[in-house]
Structure formats: C-alpha cells, structure tokens
Prior knowledge:
The complex is a heterotrimer. Chain A is an all-alpha fold. Chain A is 72% helix and 1% strand. Chain A contains 15 helices and one strand, in the order ααααβααααααααααα. The mean pLDDT of chain A is 87. By secondary structure, chain B is an all-alpha fold. Chain B has a single domain (87-304), classed as MetI-like fold, CATH 1.10.3720. Chain C is an alpha+beta fold. Chain C has two domains: 4-234, Rossmann fold; 241-357, CATH 2.40.50.140. Chain C has helices spanning 43-51, 93-103, 108-122, 137-149, 167-184, 195-201, 219-224, 229-234, and strands spanning 4-13, 17-27, 32-36, 58-63, 66-67, 78-81, 155-159, 187-192, 204-209, 212-217, 241-248, 251-254, 260-263, 270-275, 281-283, 292-303, 307-313, 320-326, 336-341, 346-350, 356-357. In chain C, the strands form three sheets. In chain C, strands 11, 12, 13, 14, 15, 16, 17, 18, 19, 20 and 21 form an eleven-stranded antiparallel sheet that branches. A six-stranded mixed sheet of chain C has the order 6-7-8-3-9-10, with helices on both faces. In chain C, helix 2 (93-103) packs parallel to helix 4 (137-149). Chain C is elongated. The interface between A and B is large, with 114 and 106 residues. Strand 1 (103-104) of chain A pairs parallel with strand 1 (18-19) of chain B. Chain B: It is a multi-pass membrane protein. Chain B: Pfam families: BPD_transp_1.
Amino acid sequence: MNNKLHLSDHLVLLAGVFFMVTPVLLTFITSTHDAITIYREGVQFLPGDQFLQNYETVLFRAGGFTKEVDGFVMLKNSLILGLGFAIGKIVISMLAAYAIVYFRFPFASLCFWVIFSTLLLPLEVRILPSYEIVQSLGMVNTYSGLIVPLIASATGTFFFRQFFLSVPDELLEAARIDGAGPWKFFKDILVPLSKTMIAAIFIIMFVYGWNQYLWPTLMTTDESLFTLVRGIKQIMQVWVGSQIPAFNEAMALAILAMLPPVIVVIVFQSWFVKGLVESDK
Amino acid sequence: MRQSAVHLSGALMKKVQFQSRTVPFLLLLPQLAIVTIFFLWPAAEAVQSSFYLEDPFGFGATFVGMDNFTDTLTSSDYGRVARFTGVFTFFVTFLSLGIALLLAVKADKVLRGASSYKTLLMWVYAVAPPVAGLIGVLLFDQHVGPITEFFALLGWDMQIGVSFFDTSFAMTVTAVWKQVPVNFIFFLSGLQGISKSVQEAASIDCRSGFRRFWTVTFPLLAPTGFFLLIINITYAFFDTFGIIDVVLKGEPGNNPVTLVYKVYLDGFRGNDLGGSSAQSVILMLLVFILTVIQFRLIERRVHYT
Amino acid sequence: MATITLDTVRKVYAGNVEAVKGVSIDIADGEFIVLVGPSGCGKSTLLRMVAGLEDITTGEVKIGDRLVNNVDPADRDIAMVFQNYALYPHMSVYNNLAYGLKNRGMAKDEIDRRVKEAAGILEIGNFLDRRPRQLSGGQRQRVAMGRAIVREPAAFLFDEPLSNLDAKLRVQMRVEIKRLQRSLGTTSVYVTHDQLEAMTLADRLVVLNGGVIEQIGSPISVYDKPASTFVASFIGSPAMNLLPVTVRDGGLALTNGSGLSGKNANGADSYTVGVRPEHFEVVETASADAAVTADVTVNVLEPVGAESFLYASFGEGGPEIVVRVSSHAQYQPGQKLVLQAMPEDVHFFDADTGKRID
Lengths: 281, 305, 358
C-alpha cells in the first residue's frame, strides 16, 4: 500500500462527507440569519447573529407556522411519540416473540403468520382504511391514536424472535433444572440477556417513531398534539402565497426536529449499527 | 422499519419449550389485538372497498367488481405516475447504492480517521424524510438556493415546482442523500464481514486492487447488495412520501408524484375511495412480490455464509 | 443419593425417528455410569430423558423409588453439567451457583454456606464476583460443576462436559471429576463420545450404538471381552484388528488374501477374528501354541514416544493391521515379518451378526 493510494481514498471520503454534511451545515447557518438577509442575498455560508433570537422564536412563541403551539410543545410531543412508540413496541414485541419462540401451543404457527404478515404491508398502502378505523374508534387527536396503530407492524417481534432463537437452548434447560418457570426465566434470564438488543432496537424505534410524518399528519389536526416533524408540513402551508418566506425560522425548526434523533444515533452509534444490521440477519 | 425482512430459515423452534395453553395467548394478546384492529381490519377494508364505488356524499356504496381496477390501470394519469415512480425508483436505488458502495469500500480501506468518517457518513440516517425535503427546498429554492445558483452559472435555470424535470431532479437528489447512510452502514458491515484471510489470499493471487475488488470482494458482497436492492426499492416507493410532500409543498399540480403519493391524494383529497383502495391493493400485490423475492434472496444469503 | 432405573425406555421423534430403542439400565446408588458411543447413538437423548428435558415416549425412568416420567426437571433432584456449560452470562459466578437455590426458596445464609463450600472444593472462591466471560475455559467448567454441587442432588448428569477444553485441561478435569465424585459419593451419569474418557471415569460403561445397548460392564471387562465387533472397534485405541476369516482345510485363512493361518476354534465356516494391537507379537518363527500367525509386510512405523505403532499388510490388496511394538524397535518399510497371537488374546465374532462367540 503506498501513500498515493491512501490520498485518493481520503479524497473520495472527504467528498462523501461534504455531500452528507454540507446541506445540514447550510441549514444551520441559515437558521442564524434574519429572513430579509437570506431573501436578499441568498443562502449564507457563514454564521449570522440571529441564532438566539430565531431559536427563541421557534421554541417559545406560538403564531409563526402554527397558531397555538410553540416549538417546545412540539418537541414534547415528538418525545412522547418517539418514546411511546419505542417502549410500546419493545414491550409488546418481546412478549409476543417470547410466546412464539419458547412455548409449544395450539395455533402457534397461525399466530406466527398473522403477526408476520404485517411485514408485507407498510402503513402507507392501507393508510385510508387505517385512518377511517382509528377515526371510528374516536382516536383521532389522541396520543394513543398516534402511537398504537404504528406498533401494528411486527418488525420488533421479528427482531426479538431472531435474537431469542440465537440464545443457546442449554440456558433454558439449565434454568428449568434450576427451577425457573416461564415468568422467572423471562425476567431473570431472557430480559437481562437481551439488554444490548433492547438498547439497539430502542434507538432504531425511537428514531423511527420520532421521524413519523404521514400518520401524524392525518391523526393530529389539533395543534396541541403536533410533533416537530408534523410541524414541517405547517411551514409549507404558511409559505404558500407569502412574500418573504421565513427560511431562518423554518430551518431552525428543521434543526430542532433532527437534533434529538441525530444525537441519539451518534452517541449510541455502535448499538444502533448493531441493531440495524443484526435485525436483518 | 422496512429494513427488516421476512427471514424464516434456520430453526423455527427451540428444542425445549414450555408447555402451556394460556400463558402464550396472554403474551400474544396485545400484539394480536393491535395487529387485528390496526392491520388486518384496514387491509380487509381496503380490499373490500376496492370493489365498490362510494358515493362522494357518503350515501352508501355500489358493488362495481373490477371496475376500479380497470379504471385505474387504464387511466393515463395512473400510467404517467407509474412511469415516474419507476424512473424515480431506478435512479434513487442506483445512485444511493453506488455512492454508498464507493464510500464503504474506501472507509473499509483507510485506517486513519476511519471511525470519524463512519460517523460523519451515517448520521443523516436520523434525519426525517420531510426534514430532508425541507433542506432540499432551501437548497433548490429559486431565489436563495445555492444549488440553483450554481446551475444557473452553467446555464440551467432551475424551476422547482414548475418544471417537471427540475422538480424530479431535486426530489431524486434529496432522496438519494437521505438513503446513502443506510446503504453505507450495510455495505461497510458486509465488507468487514469478509474474512481477512480471504482478502489476504486474494492479494497473493491478484496484484491489481481494482480487479481484486470486482472478482473477490464484489461477489462476496453481492448478497448484501441484493438485499439492499429490495430495501431501496421499498424506500423509494414508500419512505420518500415525506420528501415528496414537502418538496411539492402539498400542491402537486402537474408535478411528479409517486404511486403511494397518489393513493394518498386520491383518497384524502380526491375522495375517490374505490379508486384509492384499488391502487392500494395493486401496491399490496407489488410489495408482496418484492417481499417474496427478498425472502428468496435472504434464503440464498444464508446458504452463502 | 439414589439409584436410577431405566426400564425399556424409548424415544421416538416426529417423523418416526427412533433415537432410543428400548434401553434398560439399573444404576446403583453412588455408581459412576458412563454412556459412550458415536454421535447419534442416542446417549445424549437418554441422559436428557433422565434429566426431564426430553419427553419419554414409552418406558419408565425412576430416580430412587420415584417414577419421574412426568416430573419437572427442577423437581427431579438432579443436577446437570452441560457441554457448553450453559452458565448465565449476565450473572456473577456467585449468582450462577445460587440461582437454583434461590428459586427453591432456600434461606440466604444456607445458600451462602453452600456456595462458599462448593467454591472451596472447586477452588473458584476468588472468582465469585466475576462474570462467566471473564473466566477461562477450565474455570467455567469448574463453575458449571459448582452449580451442580450446591444443589446436593441425588444424581449428577454430565453431557460431554469436557469436550470444549483443550487436551491437557481435559485430562486434569477428568481426574478432578473422578475424585470429586468419589468423595461426594453421588450417583452420576456421564455422556461422552471419547472412549478414553469413558474408560478412565466409569465404574460401569454402557456402550450404545444406534439407540441400543451393545454392552454394559466395567471398563476392563468391556475391553477384555467386547460383546460385539462394534464394541471391539470402539473401545481401545488404536482399535482392535478385525479380520474376516474363512475355515479352509480345518484351519483359518483370510477371506480375501493370504498370509494368515490359525486354529479353528468353533464349528462355523467363517468368522471375524479380532486381535488387539498389543497382542500381536513379532517372532522369528511362530510357536506351536499360537492361535493365529500372520506373514505381513511392514508399511510404516509410527513412533508416539512410549511405544510405536507398526502398520503392516497381508500382501498386495490384503487387509492392513496395526501392532503395538516397543519404541526402540527398528523396522523398515517393505520388511517381511512373522506375527503371532496366543489363544487367550484372540476374539471370535459371528461373521454376520458381529456378536462375540466364546
């Protein structure tokens, strides 16, 4: 291996980093200027002096893109959606996967196929009937209407099933000789063993829940339930027909909407990568 | 999480299991309830209403057989959208896979700064599609966007939201940008999964690094590649919804939309329940076929390793 | 402490695969029984049926006087040591030992006493706070043993517990298991495919093949009087030389080839004759008392240190035999030799069934 070869490798990688990072960097820089400057001079390449003011406006003042809520409330709602979805999904899918892997019972394969058939149909293709059913159940503009239908897909169950199948059989046998029943085995052995897996799937599910767009758009018409990502749609509706689009505040909202999941992914990078890659094996 | 695929090979059951009739059903109850109410029921409704013509004012529905399907499939509008979806999917898949593969191969090679590169190249995974769309809107904006300014220098006057081609271009670039990280992560982990001794054997057998890549590394990566191909097609179909919606600012007009976006448009804006349902069912079939292919490929992938 | 009784135990898996075909064994209190056989012979299945980890298709398993066919593994008063140890990876060594006792609702100080005592016996007292992954293979093996000991069970069940260790450690642990079992006096059933391990550990060997018992007996009696050609070739290393012979002119001759002669001991027309490698003697001329004499050509001499193995064959295309010789013996490939074996060292087996003929 000579140095020249390495230099070209680094150049390619740097170009890749430029392609991936610059758009977000420009988004951030834009969020630190005032709207007039951007409108007059185009997107800026150096940070401006409106950082505090723009973020304060977006976080704590209602009446920009949304009429009643500020960014802070949306942040809270995003957190509820992300956490509620991730936790709900993990709990429900761990229980289901435990039943499927560790129990012999009638209709086991039927249950298995019913649950795993959900992998075949993404929410987007059954969006209208899903909306109507949730509406008929009176769950529009509720947190449960926002979260529970998203849990219907069996990805988490599938993931835990794969993991449980990889746990050596002898552990269950040793536990049975040690007098552990189904509940004790789950609580004392399986859940502690799955810790890393739970962390990995939690990160992926949190990001997935936080980033939901179409479903919250349909489910929440009440602004007090808007998430940050849902709020993005509001920007577009305010902009149609406006003279000077408030790019600065829009981009501040975008930065706020991406910051928590990005931080989670970067901080827990190794778990996240493991979760993503392992779940497909 | 469409990344997860149906993988049914290997041991389906444990050698030793608990025997109980009630406990497993109690454990399964929450999942089964949610699946039944929010998945099976709506899916059944979609199939059913695809055979009915709904009165726009909500006064009942009439059975029309396959009419919704024939209407959908023969309409020129649907053909146009289907064609765009195909082209869009092709470019998004091809470009995001290609860029990610290139970056993964390089990231696997360098020693210095490898983990920094890795982090910098993958964190965009966490950016929501509509947020990516918003960034695209900024960068491609007709008045302030630096990309538009750059192309103006080359004599291309971009008009996002007006020109069909320019809008498609902006959507594709944004969608590729958003998808590179996932592919990068999978390719890199695939590359790192190739055993060192195989690579060393190859470097003894073959001097040219380029040839070595195409004859040894690439075939060994092929299973990951096939798998990602399906993942990317599903991404381009479904997960780009947020990008498209934001780039179009909710006003499709004559602009490019994908099949999934059209389901949403016809169902929620156009109030064409039967037509939208028929489109849903067509998409269901498509996803089903993709999943079957994916299942087959994964089976093969397992034998490969 | 207890006896274990297996009465015509059968195991049939789905798809009518019969893994164990009616096995009966009476295991005395305090006895060390080794189930040995090639992989797939049903030895592990048999052990797991005793443990309660596999259902018993038909037949009865009794521990002490109690029929345990439908008793939960935890209630059978047994302890098991697994091949991969099956230690709980997220628990400390202490908790690995204590977990089963806690589940029985034993008092804390009694648990502590037992764990400390077992740790003392096995010399793992310094590792009690560590996790299994921080231990070496040998230490894990000790923890697995400790988990069995603290239960103070009626019987120990071992499922190939040494096969994940390297050769040196395996010998060391083998000696230790034997000593431990002697001092505790606990009835033990031990499964292995390693005949040497089986010989050294067992009070009685149970040789299994294809789900049936080929022979039960003390290691020496099994070695000296193998009940079948299968046992003869499975127990002992290098394996017993088995030669198909035919009766010709009142004497024995190789069925395929020449160079062997011997006395006809029974009335049949053909046999399989077995001679262990150490029972062939290199001589100038065969003695009149010899039961079998062989004219062979040396193929190769394999020194292993304390002794050497001589591989030789009966002419072109004839069968090859192995002979245990002194490590100082010098033989050249191609050299012609005369071998003899005395009557008490020659085994006869039925040519068709492979059963021993006395």
